[in-house]
Amino acid sequence: MIQACSEVIAIEGDPYGIAYNRATAYSNRCYAYIFKREYDRAIADCDKAIESNPDRAKAYSNRCYGYISKEEYDQAAADCDKAIELDPKLAIAYASRCYIYTQKQEFDRAIADCDKAIGLDPKDAHFYMRRCWAYTRKGDYKRANVDCNKGITMKPSLGTIPP
Fold this sequence. Notes:
The chain is mainly α. It is about 75% helix and about 0% strand.
């Protein structure tokens, strides 16, 4: 994925609206770098995606992951806020902000964001697991158990511990 994105980024000029594709390529390469744990490179690519297309909500959402991974929660939250402002239906931005609020021990805000993410995309098991974690940290084990069971039922691999 990194190589394919790099090839799009390297195209000179703006044939056929390549600026939009370049922003997408930077944003996607950012996400690939996150999986490689190259967070600074990921953030730099999302910076370029945003520079190319400042209205691309997914670029802010992807950059948020980089900041979360570096435990830079204020920057991550600002990116989630911007992603949500640009695309109020981007469920992953609410789920990411849920994670941030949980880390900051703002559990009611975290749960509200996961509620929103689940409302937008009720088929994503990860959102139930994020809310489970927020409920657990809040001490509401009954609700945590319901969400954990729901998430694991939807995606059984979430209930396993890797070797």
